[in-house]
Design brief:
The complex is a heterodimer of chains A (114) and B (114).
Chain A: E1 2-6, E2 10-14, E3 19-21, E4 23-27, E5 31-38, E6 44-50, E7 56-58, E8 64-68, E9 73-78, E10 87-95, E11 103-104, E12 108-113
Chain B: E1 5-7, E2 10-13, E3 19-24, E4 31-37, E5 44-50, E6 53-57, E7 64-68, E8 74-78, E9 87-94, E10 104-105, E11 109-113
Parallel strand pairs in B: 2-11
Antiparallel strand pairs in B: 1-3, 3-8, 4-5, 4-9, 5-6, 7-8, 9-10, 9-11
The chains are: A mainly beta (114), B mainly beta (114).
């Protein structure tokens, strides 16, 4: 069994400020970890993923996340946010091997103010 | 390359009725997963189809059923609709069934049960 906890339901921040969206997970097996973004009235888009190798993963639009096995965390960070980053962000986990049955967190609403 | 499409965009049904939602997967993808996203929640995995066979199922009752066709498009059928079935239903396709493959999501079908 696996679970995901996104510790903040809403994160307000001013434009150009740094932001961290927190994600903790639990699983009895080794995992893959994902961050998805959902803009209003749209489906989810993959932002970044950790499969293996370097624990720091980056997206093309400036987000990064670090896999911390000892703390079972996969927090998402961006050093300087833009208005266009306003969206819902979901952390997800799935067990390695076998078929894909992911578990999503409840989401964190990032609200960027001008 | 065409992305994942879903139809209809919205629909309203009455409790006890049956509904069919449709999904066309991205070109070249042989795996389709369906999710239910209630308001303010993260997506919950319903089931996955890989090469026309059900390949994994979440914690949903049997009145949620599906099909995958030879062209890898898919249907989600829900019988005996309940008020709690009101949600955004998301379809996602991928190149394969294992968790490391990226999932591409459609925009969703918003179902309202009255």
């Amino acid at each position: 069994a696996q679970s995901v906890t996104q510790l903040d339901s809403q994160v307000p921040v001013f434009e150009e400020a740094p932001v961290e969206l927190r994600c903790n997970y639990s699983s009895s097996v080794s995992v893959y970890l994902f961050w998805y973004v959902q803009y209003p009235n749209q489906g989810l888009q993959l932002l970044l993923k950790y499969l293996s190798g370097s624990t720091l993963v980056e997206s093309i639009n400036g987000f990064e996340a670090e896999f911390n096995k000892s703390q079972t965390s996969f927090h998402l960070r961006k050093p300087s946010v833009h208005i266009s980053d306003t969206a819902e962000y979901f952390c997800a986990v799935s067990g390695r091997g076998g078929s894909y049955i992911p578990t999503f967190g409840r989401g964190t609403s990032l609200i960027v103010h001008p | 390359e065409t992305g994942v499409t879903q139809s209809p965009t919205h629909l309203i049904k009455t409790r006890g009725q049956q509904v069919t939602l449709r999904c066309s997967s991205q070109s070249g993808h042989n795996t389709v997963s369906w999710y239910q996203q209630a308001l303010g929640q993260g997506p919950q995995f319903i089931f996955q189809y890989y090469r026309e066979e059900e390949n994994g199922r979440g914690n949903f009752p049997p009145r949620f059923s599906g099909l995958q066709f030879p062209n890898y498009s898919s249907e989600l059928n829900v019988n005996a609709l309940e008020l709690d079935d009101s949600a955004l239903y998301l379809c996602a396709s991928s190149l394969g069934q294992v968790a490391s493959y990226e999932q591409y999501f459609g925009p969703g079908t918003r179902l309202t049960v009255t």
